[in-house]
Amino acid sequence: MDVISLPIELDKKKVDGYYRLVIATVKRAKDLSRGAMPQVQSKAKKVTTRALEEILSDTVDILKGEEALKAIEEAKRLSYKRLLEEKQRETTVEDLTELEKDLKVYLAERGERDSKKVIEEIFGEEST
Fold it and tell me: Which of 9, 39, 96, 119 could connect to 59 by a Cys-Cys bridge, CB 3.0–4.6 Å?
């Protein structure tokens, strides 16, 4: 097993200090633990070591200042938008199911023998 030896040599153009290196490593390790695909082939089993290797090998971009703030806002906006879309899809399916149930009750009360055929005509597919 390869061990990352200390002190680590930093590229001052990319990472301006050890604090930024630690923060970037932590954020990348969180991404890796949540299922992000590794950018570098590694023998390391720990996500923190993999994250550090990715940052030191210059395969992960480290954003600073205004660029980082814009990226954070964009990520929040996209995750909020995705959440709204998922919520809307869930409600649409639930509403359709309730509508189908109401229609079945109405047709049963009305005495339609062929209610399944009518439901299929209205919704275009066989309901379960």
Answer: 39
